[in-house]
Write a structure and sequence with these properties.
Layout (H helix, E strand, L loop, with lengths): L1 E6 L4 E10 L2 E6 L2 E2 L5 E2 L2 E2 L2 E3 L5 E3 L9 E3 L2 H6 L9 H23 L3 E7 L6 H22 L4 H5 L3 H7 L7 H7 L2 E4 H4 L2 H4 L9 E6 L4 E9 L2 E10 L3 H4 L2 H12 L9 H9 L28 H29 L4 H8 L3 E5 L17 E4 L13 H7 L2 H11 L17 H14 L2 E3 L2 E3 L5 H4 L1
Parallel strand pairs: 1-10, 10-11, 12-15, 15-16
Antiparallel strand pairs: 1-2, 2-3, 2-6, 4-5, 7-8, 7-9, 12-13, 13-14, 17-18
């Protein structure tokens, strides 16, 4: 049985494969070749449309490069004032990109696999985002298997006008989700599973921050019996593309596509179609086309002022989370609050994701000061193919989410534990102290009022 961990990213997509034989599992990461034949463990989340209206995906050669569309994943799942692409447009581009990925997966592994996919969300919008992910992925499946009947060449030779006519973004239903066997997990949760099984992270309260290309995902959890217990998770709509001003450039790029038109759900397609046959290409438009991917390769690309704004917003969200914790602590225990705050100083703050590789973005939040960047030490390296190459390339933080998504489970119904449960042990200890205080000596024997329900009442 094969499980595909699909980390559909804003900048790049990562895929991990779990092969299960009995109780033994092995994991491998899918490699993609660029236009020079060099293999990579990631593939750019990019679509280019040439002057004949044909679409190219991922690593795009210079001869195929035309109007480039980026950030469709981010626009499909969360709105941003800095991107003018509508969710409707973004779902089409996302379905086409994932169809390309599905063609490749079926070429490599046949059709006998299930997909577990990540999505950016907070605990209050999980079900809504899960539905968006299922709609996009099922729409991609139908293009591959029903419309093009597994003919990748026909898919790639279909121009954008015809492709849009052939594409139906399906409505969500539980039945269609079950039919395709799709599981969707919050990105903030997805990379917890492989990190806790080896006992490399201390039990108790931990904070994980996953800095991606378009979003930053945060989860607050404890570890019990080597399993993560999630209490809260959230996502902010800012990542590396915000920190590099790339979103502002993309807004100008999309605005130019829709020039002289009122921006609406069809405007991007109309502008692209109006260019077809005109021989127009945009190799250097706004300096976007010159970059073969959307990745950030140097800390010098990060805007210092935007870093301040980003850290400020993340601090605000983390403080709200800690306030919940403090509220429960003061209402459930008799211990002074400073004891909790002191304890948090030594709790792990775990960083993962591409953005976390920049030390400038590894900032302590509230009391969580024991910063830790995910590495191979938190992985079960014996079960991972090519692990030494991955370690050498420093890809563990970037591939962790897809690795976690590949670990097969029966359900994506995540049980978020209530904050009240965090202090169960403290409450039980205080209860025992109070219980002992009721004991008294009577006629040479010890008696506890807690042993007598009538006495307690």
């Amino acid at each position: 049985m094969i499980t595909v961990g699909l980390d559909f990213g804003t900048h790049q997509t990562k895929i991990c494969i779990e092969k299960k034989e009995g109780v033994e599992c092995s994991y491998s990461f899918v490699k993609y070749k660029d236009d020079k034949g060099v293999e990579h463990y990631t593939i750019p989340s990019v679509i280019s449309i040439n002057n004949r209206g044909l679409l190219s995906y991922g690593f795009i050669s210079n001869k195929d490069r035309g109007t480039t569309i980026r950030y469709f994943k981010q626009s499909a799942f969360c709105t941003s004032p800095e991107i003018t692409m509508s969710q409707s447009d973004a779902m089409y581009f996302s379905a086409w990109y994932l169809a390309y990925i599905l063609f490749d997966l079926e070429e490599r592994y046949g059709k006998d696999f299930v997909i577990q996919m990540g999505a950016p969300t907070d605990s209050g919008h999980y079900e809504e985002v899960k539905q968006v992910a299922v709609r996009i992925l099922v729409s991609a499946y139908r293009l591959v298997e029903d419309v093009f009947q597994n003919d990748k060449a026909a898919f790639l030779s279909c121009n954008i006008e015809s492709l849009k006519d052939k594409t139906e973004i399906v409505s969500y239903s539980d039945e269609i989700k079950d039919e395709y066997g799709i599981l969707v997990f919050p990105e903030a949760y997805a990379c917890l599973k492989p990190l806790t099984s080896r006992g490399k992270i201390a039990t108790g309260m931990s904070l994980m921050i996953d800095i991606g290309g378009g979003t930053t995902d945060v989860s607050f959890f404890t570890i019990e019996n080597k399993l993560p217990q999630v209490y809260d998770f959230f996502s902010i709509n800012k990542g590396l593309n915000y920190l590099t001003n790339a979103l502002k450039e993309e807004q100008q790029h999309l605005s130019d596509l829709a020039k002289h038109q009122k921006v609406h759900s069809e405007s991007i397609f109309h502008k692209i179609l109006s260019r077809l046959g005109g021989g127009e290409t945009n190799h250097t438009h706004n300096n976007i086309e010159a970059k073969p991917d959307s990745n950030v390769h140097s800390v010098d690309e990060l805007d210092p002022e935007r870093i301040k704004q980003y850290v400020g917003e993340l601090k605000k969200e983390c403080n709200l989370l800690i306030q919940k914790l403090q509220f429960e602590f003061t209402h459930q225990t008799k211990i002074p609050l400073y004891r909790l705050n002191d304890a948090l100083q030594s709790r792990p703050l775990i960083y993962t994701g591409g953005g976390s590789t920049f030390k400038r973005l590894q900032v302590p939040y509230f009391g969580f000061k024991d910063k830790k960047l995910i590495s191979h030490q938190e992985w079960d390296t014996k079960s991972i193919v090519d692990v030494q190459e991955i370690i050498k390339l420093g890809l563990c933080p970037i591939l962790s989410t897809s690795y976690g998504l590949a670990i097969s489970v029966a359900s994506d119904n995540i049980e978020r534990k209530p904050f009240t449960d965090i202090f169960d042990k403290i409450r039980s200890d205080e209860y025992e102290e109070e219980r002992q205080s009721y004991k008294y000596q009577s006629s040479g024997r010890s008696f506890s009022a807690y042993d007598d329900w009538d006495a307690i009442k």
